[in-house]
Amino acid sequence: MKLTRFDIITVDIPMRQSVRHALAERNVARNILVAAHDEKGGIGWGECCPRPYVTGETIDSVKQDLTTTILPQLLGNELASFEAAADMLVPQLDSMARNQQAAFCAAELAVLDLAGNRFGTSAGMVLGPVQTPQVRYSGVIATDDIESVKQNAAFMAKFGVGDVKVKVGASLESNLEILTTARTILGDQVTLRIDANCAWSAAETIRQLTAMQSFSLTGVEQPVPGEDIDGMRAVTAAKLVPVVADESLCSLEDARTLIREQACDVFNVRISKCGGLINAGRIDQLAREAGLDCQLGAQVGEAGILSAAGRHYATRSQGVRWCEGSYGQLLLEEDITEPDITLGPGGIAPALDTHGIGVTPAPERLQRYEHARLTVSA
Ligand SMILES: [Mg+2]
Q1: 101 C-alpha vs ligand 1 centroid, how far in Å?
Q2: CA-to-CA distance for 92 and 275, rounded, in angstroms?
Q3: Which member of 58, 142, 229, 302 has the greatest number of CB atoms within 10 A?
Q4: Do 69 and 141 belong to one domain?
Q5: In terms of domains, do 216 and 172 share one?
Q6: CA of 222 to the centre of ligand 1 (A)
Q7: How far is the CA of 26 from the centre of ligand 1 (A)?
Q8: Distance 220 CA to ligand 1 centre (A)
Q9: Residue 136: its pLDDT value, please?
Protein backbone atom coordinates (compact mmCIF):
# COMPACT_ATOMS: atom_id res chain seq x y z
CA MET A 1 0.00 0.00 0.00
CA LYS A 2 1.42 3.35 -1.05
CA LEU A 3 0.17 6.71 0.25
CA THR A 4 -0.46 8.75 -2.87
CA ARG A 5 -2.69 11.68 -1.94
CA PHE A 6 -4.44 13.42 0.94
CA ASP A 7 -7.49 15.69 0.94
CA ILE A 8 -8.10 18.15 3.77
CA ILE A 9 -11.80 18.97 4.02
CA THR A 10 -13.33 21.54 6.36
CA VAL A 11 -16.96 20.79 7.25
CA ASP A 12 -19.57 22.97 8.96
CA ILE A 13 -22.32 20.85 10.51
CA PRO A 14 -25.21 22.66 12.22
CA MET A 15 -25.96 21.47 15.76
CA ARG A 16 -29.44 20.87 17.17
CA GLN A 17 -28.78 23.17 20.13
CA SER A 18 -26.02 25.49 21.10
CA VAL A 19 -23.57 24.23 23.69
CA ARG A 20 -22.09 26.65 26.16
CA HIS A 21 -19.34 26.58 28.78
CA ALA A 22 -16.95 29.02 30.42
CA LEU A 23 -14.60 29.13 27.40
CA ALA A 24 -16.87 28.92 24.36
CA GLU A 25 -20.34 28.78 22.88
CA ARG A 26 -20.98 26.84 19.72
CA ASN A 27 -23.90 25.99 17.45
CA VAL A 28 -22.01 24.81 14.36
CA ALA A 29 -19.44 22.03 14.43
CA ARG A 30 -16.51 23.13 12.26
CA ASN A 31 -14.28 20.09 11.96
CA ILE A 32 -11.46 19.06 9.66
CA LEU A 33 -11.53 15.73 7.84
CA VAL A 34 -8.52 14.15 6.22
CA ALA A 35 -8.90 11.57 3.43
CA ALA A 36 -5.85 9.38 2.79
CA HIS A 37 -5.65 7.71 -0.65
CA ASP A 38 -3.58 4.77 -1.81
CA GLU A 39 -2.46 3.71 -5.28
CA LYS A 40 -5.37 1.29 -5.70
CA GLY A 41 -8.13 3.80 -4.99
CA GLY A 42 -8.50 2.92 -1.32
CA ILE A 43 -9.55 5.76 1.02
CA GLY A 44 -9.18 6.18 4.79
CA TRP A 45 -10.76 8.94 6.87
CA GLY A 46 -9.57 10.97 9.83
CA GLU A 47 -11.07 13.90 11.73
CA CYS A 48 -10.12 16.55 14.26
CA CYS A 49 -11.74 19.46 16.06
CA PRO A 50 -9.16 22.24 16.47
CA ARG A 51 -9.75 24.31 19.63
CA PRO A 52 -7.59 27.38 20.38
CA TYR A 53 -8.40 27.21 24.10
CA VAL A 54 -7.41 23.54 24.39
CA THR A 55 -4.35 22.79 22.21
CA GLY A 56 -3.89 26.29 20.81
CA GLU A 57 -4.89 25.08 17.34
CA THR A 58 -7.22 26.70 14.82
CA ILE A 59 -8.72 25.54 11.54
CA ASP A 60 -5.98 27.52 9.76
CA SER A 61 -3.11 26.23 11.90
CA VAL A 62 -4.24 22.64 11.36
CA LYS A 63 -4.40 23.15 7.59
CA GLN A 64 -0.95 24.74 7.70
CA ASP A 65 0.60 21.91 9.75
CA LEU A 66 -1.04 19.26 7.58
CA THR A 67 -0.02 20.78 4.26
CA THR A 68 3.52 21.86 5.14
CA THR A 69 4.76 19.23 7.59
CA ILE A 70 2.61 16.26 8.48
CA LEU A 71 1.18 15.03 5.19
CA PRO A 72 4.25 15.64 2.97
CA GLN A 73 6.22 13.36 5.32
CA LEU A 74 3.61 10.61 4.94
CA LEU A 75 3.20 10.87 1.14
CA GLY A 76 4.90 8.20 -0.90
CA ASN A 77 5.43 5.78 1.99
CA GLU A 78 4.97 2.13 1.07
CA LEU A 79 3.44 0.06 3.83
CA ALA A 80 3.40 -3.74 3.91
CA SER A 81 1.10 -4.20 6.91
CA PHE A 82 -1.16 -2.43 9.42
CA GLU A 83 1.66 -2.66 11.95
CA ALA A 84 4.02 -0.95 9.49
CA ALA A 85 1.56 1.93 9.18
CA ALA A 86 1.43 2.35 12.95
CA ASP A 87 5.23 2.12 13.19
CA MET A 88 5.59 4.84 10.54
CA LEU A 89 3.36 7.19 12.53
CA VAL A 90 5.14 6.94 15.90
CA PRO A 91 8.31 8.99 15.16
CA GLN A 92 6.20 11.72 13.60
CA LEU A 93 3.89 11.72 16.61
CA ASP A 94 6.95 12.10 18.85
CA SER A 95 8.04 15.18 16.90
CA MET A 96 4.68 16.99 17.28
CA ALA A 97 4.36 20.03 19.52
CA ARG A 98 1.46 20.48 21.92
CA ASN A 99 -0.22 22.78 19.40
CA GLN A 100 -0.13 20.16 16.65
CA GLN A 101 -1.99 17.36 18.44
CA ALA A 102 -5.32 17.76 16.63
CA ALA A 103 -3.66 18.13 13.22
CA PHE A 104 -1.73 14.93 13.76
CA CYS A 105 -4.87 13.16 14.99
CA ALA A 106 -6.70 13.76 11.71
CA ALA A 107 -3.76 12.45 9.66
CA GLU A 108 -3.18 9.46 11.97
CA LEU A 109 -6.80 8.32 11.91
CA ALA A 110 -6.91 8.58 8.11
CA VAL A 111 -3.80 6.42 7.72
CA LEU A 112 -4.98 3.86 10.30
CA ASP A 113 -8.41 3.68 8.62
CA LEU A 114 -6.85 3.19 5.19
CA ALA A 115 -4.36 0.58 6.42
CA GLY A 116 -7.03 -1.18 8.47
CA ASN A 117 -9.29 -1.41 5.43
CA ARG A 118 -6.45 -2.59 3.22
CA PHE A 119 -5.02 -5.18 5.59
CA GLY A 120 -8.29 -6.36 7.13
CA THR A 121 -7.97 -5.16 10.70
CA SER A 122 -9.69 -2.64 12.95
CA ALA A 123 -7.95 0.73 13.34
CA GLY A 124 -8.51 0.15 17.06
CA MET A 125 -5.88 -2.60 17.00
CA VAL A 126 -3.21 0.06 17.65
CA LEU A 127 -4.63 -0.12 21.18
CA GLY A 128 -4.90 -3.91 21.29
CA PRO A 129 -7.97 -6.15 21.27
CA VAL A 130 -11.44 -5.22 22.53
CA GLN A 131 -11.58 -5.50 26.33
CA THR A 132 -15.23 -4.71 26.88
CA PRO A 133 -18.06 -5.42 24.41
CA GLN A 134 -19.97 -2.24 25.21
CA VAL A 135 -19.59 1.01 27.08
CA ARG A 136 -21.96 3.45 28.76
CA TYR A 137 -21.81 7.11 27.79
CA SER A 138 -22.67 10.02 30.07
CA GLY A 139 -25.03 12.85 29.26
CA VAL A 140 -23.66 16.40 29.31
CA ILE A 141 -25.66 19.46 30.35
CA ALA A 142 -23.96 22.56 28.95
CA THR A 143 -26.22 25.54 29.48
CA ASP A 144 -26.94 28.00 32.28
CA ASP A 145 -30.49 28.63 31.08
CA ILE A 146 -32.65 26.85 33.64
CA GLU A 147 -35.42 25.99 31.17
CA SER A 148 -32.81 24.32 28.95
CA VAL A 149 -31.32 22.51 31.97
CA LYS A 150 -34.81 21.16 32.72
CA GLN A 151 -35.36 20.02 29.13
CA ASN A 152 -31.93 18.40 28.92
CA ALA A 153 -32.29 16.63 32.25
CA ALA A 154 -35.80 15.41 31.39
CA PHE A 155 -34.55 14.00 28.09
CA MET A 156 -31.65 12.25 29.84
CA ALA A 157 -33.94 10.82 32.52
CA LYS A 158 -36.24 9.43 29.84
CA PHE A 159 -33.28 8.14 27.82
CA GLY A 160 -32.05 6.25 30.90
CA VAL A 161 -28.65 7.92 31.20
CA GLY A 162 -26.75 6.80 34.31
CA ASP A 163 -24.10 9.51 34.58
CA VAL A 164 -24.37 13.20 33.83
CA LYS A 165 -21.71 15.89 33.56
CA VAL A 166 -22.85 19.44 34.22
CA LYS A 167 -20.99 22.47 32.91
CA VAL A 168 -20.66 25.10 35.64
CA GLY A 169 -19.44 28.69 35.61
CA ALA A 170 -18.19 31.49 37.81
CA SER A 171 -21.37 32.08 39.82
CA LEU A 172 -21.87 29.70 42.75
CA GLU A 173 -25.51 30.76 43.01
CA SER A 174 -26.18 29.89 39.38
CA ASN A 175 -24.23 26.63 39.66
CA LEU A 176 -26.27 25.53 42.69
CA GLU A 177 -29.48 26.31 40.84
CA ILE A 178 -28.37 24.24 37.83
CA LEU A 179 -27.29 21.32 40.01
CA THR A 180 -30.47 21.42 42.10
CA THR A 181 -32.59 21.42 38.95
CA ALA A 182 -30.63 18.53 37.42
CA ARG A 183 -30.68 16.47 40.61
CA THR A 184 -34.42 17.01 41.12
CA ILE A 185 -35.24 15.77 37.62
CA LEU A 186 -32.61 13.03 37.33
CA GLY A 187 -33.07 11.62 40.83
CA ASP A 188 -30.47 10.19 43.21
CA GLN A 189 -29.54 7.14 41.11
CA VAL A 190 -27.81 9.19 38.40
CA THR A 191 -24.25 10.29 39.19
CA LEU A 192 -23.43 13.96 38.76
CA ARG A 193 -20.04 15.47 38.06
CA ILE A 194 -19.08 18.99 37.02
CA ASP A 195 -16.78 20.66 34.52
CA ALA A 196 -15.72 24.24 35.26
CA ASN A 197 -13.65 24.68 32.07
CA CYS A 198 -10.93 26.70 33.86
CA ALA A 199 -13.42 29.14 35.46
CA TRP A 200 -12.04 29.15 39.02
CA SER A 201 -8.95 29.61 41.16
CA ALA A 202 -7.91 26.83 43.55
CA ALA A 203 -9.38 28.69 46.53
CA GLU A 204 -12.63 29.31 44.66
CA THR A 205 -12.79 25.64 43.69
CA ILE A 206 -12.61 24.62 47.32
CA ARG A 207 -15.30 27.16 48.23
CA GLN A 208 -17.62 25.96 45.46
CA LEU A 209 -17.04 22.25 46.07
CA THR A 210 -17.67 22.70 49.78
CA ALA A 211 -20.99 24.39 48.98
CA MET A 212 -21.86 21.54 46.58
CA GLN A 213 -21.29 18.69 49.04
CA SER A 214 -24.95 17.66 49.16
CA PHE A 215 -24.84 16.69 45.46
CA SER A 216 -22.33 13.86 46.07
CA LEU A 217 -20.40 14.92 42.96
CA THR A 218 -18.27 12.14 41.50
CA GLY A 219 -15.79 14.44 39.79
CA VAL A 220 -14.70 18.02 39.15
CA GLU A 221 -13.12 18.62 35.76
CA GLN A 222 -10.55 21.31 35.09
CA PRO A 223 -11.58 23.73 37.83
CA VAL A 224 -8.58 26.02 37.26
CA PRO A 225 -6.82 27.21 34.08
CA GLY A 226 -4.97 24.53 32.13
CA GLU A 227 -1.52 25.93 32.87
CA ASP A 228 -2.21 26.29 36.62
CA ILE A 229 -0.66 22.99 37.67
CA ASP A 230 -0.09 24.29 41.23
CA GLY A 231 -3.82 25.00 41.44
CA MET A 232 -4.67 21.53 40.13
CA ARG A 233 -2.33 20.00 42.70
CA ALA A 234 -3.89 22.02 45.55
CA VAL A 235 -7.42 21.00 44.57
CA THR A 236 -6.39 17.35 44.19
CA ALA A 237 -4.68 17.38 47.60
CA ALA A 238 -7.85 18.76 49.21
CA LYS A 239 -9.57 15.44 48.31
CA LEU A 240 -13.06 16.94 48.26
CA VAL A 241 -14.00 15.41 44.89
CA PRO A 242 -11.86 13.45 42.36
CA VAL A 243 -10.15 15.94 40.04
CA VAL A 244 -10.16 15.41 36.27
CA ALA A 245 -7.51 17.06 34.09
CA ASP A 246 -8.82 18.21 30.72
CA GLU A 247 -7.37 21.46 29.34
CA SER A 248 -4.21 20.60 31.35
CA LEU A 249 -3.86 17.33 29.41
CA CYS A 250 -3.12 17.28 25.70
CA SER A 251 0.32 15.82 25.06
CA LEU A 252 2.25 12.91 26.51
CA GLU A 253 4.47 15.51 28.20
CA ASP A 254 1.37 17.02 29.86
CA ALA A 255 0.49 13.57 31.18
CA ARG A 256 3.97 13.13 32.65
CA THR A 257 3.80 16.59 34.28
CA LEU A 258 0.39 15.93 35.84
CA ILE A 259 1.58 12.60 37.25
CA ARG A 260 4.84 14.02 38.59
CA GLU A 261 3.02 16.97 40.20
CA GLN A 262 0.18 14.79 41.56
CA ALA A 263 -2.13 17.32 39.96
CA CYS A 264 -5.21 15.18 39.22
CA ASP A 265 -6.96 11.85 39.83
CA VAL A 266 -8.35 11.23 36.35
CA PHE A 267 -7.18 12.06 32.81
CA ASN A 268 -9.83 13.22 30.35
CA VAL A 269 -8.58 11.61 27.14
CA ARG A 270 -10.14 13.24 24.09
CA ILE A 271 -8.81 11.71 20.91
CA SER A 272 -8.57 14.97 18.95
CA LYS A 273 -6.70 17.05 21.53
CA CYS A 274 -4.53 14.09 22.60
CA GLY A 275 -3.02 13.51 19.15
CA GLY A 276 -4.99 10.46 18.02
CA LEU A 277 -5.37 6.83 18.98
CA ILE A 278 -1.74 5.84 19.45
CA ASN A 279 -1.12 8.73 21.83
CA ALA A 280 -4.41 8.09 23.65
CA GLY A 281 -3.13 4.58 24.31
CA ARG A 282 0.21 5.88 25.55
CA ILE A 283 -1.43 8.44 27.87
CA ASP A 284 -3.77 5.72 29.14
CA GLN A 285 -0.78 3.48 29.85
CA LEU A 286 1.00 6.23 31.83
CA ALA A 287 -2.16 6.77 33.87
CA ARG A 288 -2.45 3.06 34.73
CA GLU A 289 1.18 2.90 35.82
CA ALA A 290 0.66 5.93 38.07
CA GLY A 291 -2.57 4.58 39.59
CA LEU A 292 -4.76 7.19 37.89
CA ASP A 293 -8.03 6.59 36.05
CA CYS A 294 -8.99 7.78 32.59
CA GLN A 295 -12.20 8.88 30.99
CA LEU A 296 -13.03 9.12 27.32
CA GLY A 297 -13.91 12.71 26.54
CA ALA A 298 -15.14 14.38 23.36
CA GLN A 299 -14.96 17.74 21.66
CA VAL A 300 -18.41 19.25 21.22
CA GLY A 301 -19.54 18.59 17.67
CA GLU A 302 -17.39 15.57 16.93
CA ALA A 303 -18.71 13.74 13.89
CA GLY A 304 -18.76 9.99 13.40
CA ILE A 305 -15.06 9.45 12.70
CA LEU A 306 -13.97 10.86 16.05
CA SER A 307 -16.89 9.11 17.74
CA ALA A 308 -15.65 5.82 16.31
CA ALA A 309 -12.08 6.56 17.37
CA GLY A 310 -13.29 7.34 20.89
CA ARG A 311 -15.25 4.09 20.94
CA HIS A 312 -12.11 2.16 20.02
CA TYR A 313 -10.24 3.78 22.90
CA ALA A 314 -13.01 3.27 25.47
CA THR A 315 -13.57 -0.40 24.59
CA ARG A 316 -9.91 -1.32 24.26
CA SER A 317 -8.61 0.47 27.38
CA GLN A 318 -8.27 -1.53 30.59
CA GLY A 319 -11.36 0.38 31.70
CA VAL A 320 -12.45 4.00 31.60
CA ARG A 321 -14.31 5.65 34.45
CA TRP A 322 -16.69 7.61 32.22
CA CYS A 323 -17.33 8.04 28.50
CA GLU A 324 -18.49 11.09 26.60
CA GLY A 325 -19.20 11.58 22.90
CA SER A 326 -20.93 9.46 20.24
CA TYR A 327 -23.82 11.94 20.46
CA GLY A 328 -24.10 11.87 16.64
CA GLN A 329 -27.65 12.59 15.60
CA LEU A 330 -28.60 13.71 19.13
CA LEU A 331 -26.33 16.76 18.88
CA LEU A 332 -25.70 17.28 15.16
CA GLU A 333 -28.58 18.02 12.79
CA GLU A 334 -27.13 15.21 10.75
CA ASP A 335 -23.97 13.17 11.22
CA ILE A 336 -21.92 12.81 8.07
CA THR A 337 -20.89 9.18 8.50
CA GLU A 338 -22.43 5.74 8.10
CA PRO A 339 -23.28 3.41 9.67
CA ASP A 340 -24.88 5.45 12.45
CA ILE A 341 -23.00 4.73 15.69
CA THR A 342 -24.90 7.23 17.87
CA LEU A 343 -25.22 5.87 21.41
CA GLY A 344 -28.44 4.04 22.26
CA PRO A 345 -30.89 4.08 25.20
CA GLY A 346 -29.14 4.30 28.55
CA GLY A 347 -26.11 5.75 26.76
CA ILE A 348 -25.03 2.22 25.81
CA ALA A 349 -23.01 1.60 22.66
CA PRO A 350 -21.12 -1.47 21.39
CA ALA A 351 -17.45 -1.95 20.54
CA LEU A 352 -16.62 -1.58 16.84
CA ASP A 353 -14.71 -4.44 15.30
CA THR A 354 -15.04 -4.02 11.55
CA HIS A 355 -12.09 -3.13 9.32
CA GLY A 356 -10.61 0.34 9.53
CA ILE A 357 -12.11 2.98 11.79
CA GLY A 358 -15.59 1.51 11.29
CA VAL A 359 -17.45 4.44 9.72
CA THR A 360 -17.10 6.41 6.51
CA PRO A 361 -18.61 9.73 5.30
CA ALA A 362 -21.72 9.39 3.15
CA PRO A 363 -20.79 11.26 -0.07
CA GLU A 364 -23.98 13.33 -0.35
CA ARG A 365 -23.80 14.42 3.29
CA LEU A 366 -20.12 15.26 3.04
CA GLN A 367 -20.93 17.41 0.02
CA ARG A 368 -23.74 19.15 1.87
CA TYR A 369 -21.52 20.28 4.74
CA GLU A 370 -18.19 20.71 2.95
CA HIS A 371 -16.87 24.24 3.39
CA ALA A 372 -13.38 24.06 1.87
CA ARG A 373 -11.00 21.50 0.42
CA LEU A 374 -7.24 21.25 -0.13
CA THR A 375 -5.25 18.46 -1.73
CA VAL A 376 -1.71 17.34 -0.93
CA SER A 377 -0.15 14.98 -3.46
CA ALA A 378 3.30 14.02 -4.70
MG1 LIG B 1 -13.76 19.56 29.87
Answers
A1: 17
A2: 11
A3: 302
A4: no
A5: yes
A6: 6
A7: 14
A8: 9
A9: 98
- Residues whose CB falls within 8 Å of the CB of residue 63, separated by 6 or more in sequence, listed in order: 8, 10, 32, 374
Count of domains forming the chain: 2
CATH for 112:
3.30.390.10
Question: How many angstroms does the Cα of residue 298 sit away from the middle of ligand 1?
Answer: 8
Examine the domain organization and report whether 300 and 368 are in the same domain: no
168 and 199 together in one domain? yes
Ligand 1 center to residue 198 CA distance, Å? 9
- Ligand 1 mean position, distance from CA 175 (Å): 16
Q: Which residue type is seen at 318? A: Q
pLDDT digits 0-9 by tens, 23-61 = 878 899 999 999 999 999 999 999 999 999 999 999 999
How is 225-292 classified by DSSP, letter by letter? -TT-HHHHHHHHHHTSS-EEESTT-SSHHHHHHHHHTT--SEEEEETTTTTSHHHHHHHHHHHHHHT-
pLDDT tens-digit series, residues 239-281: 999 999 999 999 999 999 999 999 999 999 999 999 999 999 9
pLDDT surpasses 90 at 21: no
Q: Please give the distance, rounded to the nearest whole angstrom, from the Cα atom of residue 1 to the centre of ligand 1.
A: 38
Q: Which domain holds residue 220?
A: 126-350
